Amino acid sequence: MRPRDGRANPIPPMPQSPSTAPARLPLAFLVGQNAEGHWLAVETHGLGGGIFRSRRDALHYATAETGRRPDAVRLSSTPISLAP
Description:
Layout: E1 29-33, E2 39-43, E3 49-52, H1 55-65, E4 73-75
Parallel strand pairs: 1-4
Antiparallel strand pairs: 1-2, 2-3
């Protein structure tokens, strides 16, 4: 079927190749406690995070979110927060 102006339907755009697609930052997390002692996992680019019952739970979340990539999860020795 042709549009009302008589032109043929345009060819859909080609999908972008990885070299032309916008670069995605790899997820990385910082895990530590806030000033109140709650365990947090905070994505270093501000893309997410959460409050957890234990250090183990925070680490489990962060490692699962990063695909278990080496060096994608760091532990903080100082208090951290979800918001700057």
